[in-house]
Amino acid sequence: MKTTAYYPKTLLEALRIKKEHPEALIYAGGTDFMLAKKQGEHLIFIKQIPELQSVEKSEDGISIGAACVYHALLDDPAIPELLKRVISEIAAPAIRNTATIGGNICNASPAGDTLPILYLLDAQVVLSALNGEIVQKRILPIKSFIQGIRKIDLSPEELITEIRLPEEALKRVAAGETAYRKVGARKAQAISKLLFCASMTAKDGLVTDFRVAYGSVSATALRCEDIERAYIGRPLAEFKNRIPELLGAYDARIHPIDDQRSTAEYRKQVCLNLLEDFLTTAYSRIVISGGLLIDGSGGTPYAGDILTEGNRIAQIGNPGAFSGEAYADAIQISAEGLAVSPGFIDTHSHSDLSVLTEPEVLPKLMQGITTEVLGQDGISMAPLPETYISDWRKNLAGLDGESHQINWHYETTENYLKMIEAARPAVHESYLLPHGNVRMAAMGLDDRLPTESELGAMCKITERGMKAGCLGLSSGLIYMPCAYSKTEELIELCKIVAAYDGVFVVHQRSEADFILPSMEEILGIGRKSGVAIHFSHFKICGKNNWKYLPKMLEMLDRAQKEGLRVSFDQYPYAAGSTMLGVILPPWAHDGGTDALVARLKDPDAREKMKADIETGISGWDNFVDFAGLDGIFVTSVNSEKNQFAVGLSLTELGEKTGKSPLDAAFDLLAEEENAVGMVDFYGLESHITEILKRPEMNACTDGLLSGMPHPRVYGAFPRILGRYVREQKVLSAEEAIAKMTSKAAQAMRLEGRGLLKPGYYADIVVWHPETVSDKGTFDQPRQYPEGIVHVFVEGVQAIKDGSYTGNRNGRVIRKK
Amino acid sequence: MIEFYLNQKKVQYDGEPTRRLLDVLREDFGLTEVKEGCGEGECGACAVLIDGKTRQSCITAIGSLEGLSVMTLEGYKHSEQYKVLDQSFAEAGAVQCGFCTPGMIMAAQSLLAENPEPSDAEIRDGISGNLCRCTGYNMIVDAIRMASQKGKGLW
Q1: Which tens digit of pLDDT belongs to each residue from A186-214?
Q2: What ranges do the domains of chain A cover?
Q3: Do B126 and A93 touch (CB under 8 A)?
Q4: What is the CATH number of the domain that holds B8?
């Protein structure tokens, strides 16, 4: 028997053929058809019919053409995320390029991957047939359409043409917390042992929606709407109390079988475990009571209690407002005698590499920091072209450390951010696109200006970075290769950043002799590009330059009047920490680390470096000149053999090695291939307080985590609250907290963070105003602060009674 | 009778429409780079590109190809992209017995066409429908990453 194949071009044509030959077989993706080795006299191919391929969104919901291939649905913006998640775990790419959603439904396997989510979303199936010349539609809920194992309510003349997801269900599920789990023998190509899909929505302490659907545990997907109805509308507290009862109700309905893939016992237990886990963690509530709320706004502190629901702050009420029966489910945290504030935001952080290997980020978390901004100073992890990996790792090591544990072949910013996500950090991480990486990707590491086409390439990379979710662009105009750029280059890049409402965060060209022209350059970039300016670790270095401070502050005032958007961050110490390589004149770094090491070994070049350090170069910040050989300390080296140098000043390093201090420093840099960290003492205590009081100021750690770190890494935020608020009374607590939270959020344009306010993320710090203080010193910096009692990261407790709980609930914050 | 493109040439087929594409390619057209492994869509040895995307030819009916374009390794071999993949697979040691390799190459091409700079996780997902019983996959992942870097601009 030869099969006659039909290729209808329209739905009408297909229905005509089906009317004429009701026994005709239908071929969509064919993945089940071919396995079943179906044979028949008439065969209708339907994938080419446009009506069956479209996805449409309307106010009634979403309509999905029955012959839509999975892969196409993954790319379609109208498809809800939860459904995409389900689809992305189906089989493997080749099957997702072939199989259709209508096919999965018509196959009516108990293990059909899309079925539980479609049950959960109250999906309807549209069946079409010809009545005369009129297309007649029958619309059935999916649970009625599927009648049993491979049994569907489809008459011979009908075709399944559409799957409808009603708006009401979509809205309800999108508003709440959801869970999906496919349990199979392996990730890809597995026919599931069981499928679990659930959603729950709560509002004002009431459960407003609750849905659970299972697959592979009964003849059809299992959803028990009667159980759901019995629990919707109940107060959260009661709902949570009744979890054992609920599990019992599902236990009575789930009747799996033993087969080659699993056992009934395993299936049922895993079903109940997944449900219990979801019900327990969804909308978990926390009441923080009895504390003094310093809410980040800068307003007067007040006594109040906080209720969180899920990852947000639900309500703020009077003391005692959230007690009693109605809140019995909530975790009660007493903040009696303590202050309660939004989680601190560190706008200048260098955890870029270490977050991948030590995602707890404890030096930050223990200070109450819940959000970090990475990608600072124009040199960071991504983008990182393949050709420069080795060079760049050396260039980066002084700021961000070095690691052999990570895979350095990620190339793009998007991939790097995904790696952070995969590491599951304990605090939220956000990223600035580093100018140096952009420059390297477009034109390499040479000391020259970009050609027109190279500048065009840099603009494209910047645009891609902003699209990947960077908060803005960073530069470090004393670091290579950023230092090789001129103002015009930065203006062009900042125009793009401004178009995305991003911020330009900059370690300016000079923080010493040439600070005034340097600030002028940056303000000019803001003026010409329209970008918001944020100066990194604002300060003045070197006693010869202290006189410039009043003028610097005047410039800020003028910028403000002119309408420029200017902010800055500061760490509250009179010493800085960076890479020892900055003591060398810029030309020494030309061409990257290998070229630098060669110069350090060349006697003539060394003499010239010494001469430049002796006499200075116009426009270059000469660290040796303003901090002195006694004021610069080695804080980290890579090699075992040079560990002795850590903690020594350059003078002491010279004595210990029997060389001149500069020769000793040059040798160390050469041996360590530039990966040497340092601390330099440059300023005055009175400058710190003067800068601290400025309205543009917010706090940061500038935390370099490798080697022997600067004490600010472990204590910058508590230090402001202890030393400058409680002891010296330079700021009020509410002013200081605003500078650690809302001001930082504003400067970086972070949404939903920085305030204690209903609807904001539940990033919260509970701290002790009487004891809060930093503990680290320059000798022993690795000491956690005192007085940071509890820290919550999006409603999950990360620090409890001053100790880390092991909960890592941070996310990657991408700019939308 | 149906018409489709096979390795960029228009061809015709006039037989049983439910025959497996795999059999038609091997038996009627002599394209034996397409291998049969499991015969039920799970192992990827029979992968070909249909309209540029990787598909399993063992669970594709020949009749479903009307108007579409099929590429097997025999046709793909002449492309610039193949040269890069070929070299990378050799360099990374991604081939031992070679039985899975044609399918792996098809999956890699399909992935890179869609995502020229895939992360490691994305590469692993890209070849998750292709079994290899020799290499343990790491070298294949290395090879595809290497190809994505070497073949910049090709995909």
Answers
A1: 999 999 999 999 999 998 889 999 999 99
A2: 1-110+122-163, 176-280, 344-441+544-556+566-574+683-745+753-772+780-804, 579-681
A3: yes
A4: 3.10.20.30
Nearest CA to CA, how far is B16 from chain A (Å)?
Answer: 6
Q: Yes or no: say if A731 and A578 are a contact pair by the CB < 8 Å rule.
A: no
| Distance (Å, whole) CA A22 – CA A44 | 11
- Helices A549-562 and A515-529: crossing angle in degrees, nearest 10, is 10
Would you identify the CATH topology of the domain A1-110+122-163? 3.30.465
Kindly determine whether residue B110 and residue A97, on different chains, have CB atoms separated by under 8 Å: yes
Contacts of residue A422 in chain B, CB cutoff 8 Å? 121
**Structure tokens of A387?**
């050709």
Across the interface, of A94, A410, A411, the residue whose CB is closest to B55 is A94
pLDDT band at A617 (very low <50, low <70, confident <90, very high): confident
Is B138 in the A-facing interface, judged by CB distances under 8 Å? no
Q: Distance, in angstroms, between B97 CA and closest chain A CA?
A: 22
Going by C-beta distance under 8 Å and a sequence separation of 6 or more, which residues neighbour residue B130?
Answer: A92, B43, B44, B45, B47, B100, B103, B104, B107
Question: If contacts are CB pairs under 8 Å, which of residues 66-95 in chain A contact chain B?
Answer: 71, 91-95
Burial classification of residue A544, based on how many CB atoms lie within 10 Å of its CB (0-12 exposed, 13-18 middle, 19 or more buried) = exposed
Supply the pTM of this predicted model: 0.77
CB-based contact, B101 to chain A, within 8 Å: no
Instruction: Count how many domains chain B has.
Output: 2
B18 Cβ under 8 Å from any chain A Cβ: yes
Residue A147 in tokens: 């009648």
Say whether pLDDT at A238 is over 80.
yes
Amino acid at A688: I
Whether A33 has its CB under 8 Å from any CB of chain B: the answer is yes
**CATH architecture of the domain formed by A344-441+544-556+566-574+683-745+753-772+780-804:** Alpha-Beta Barrel (3.20)
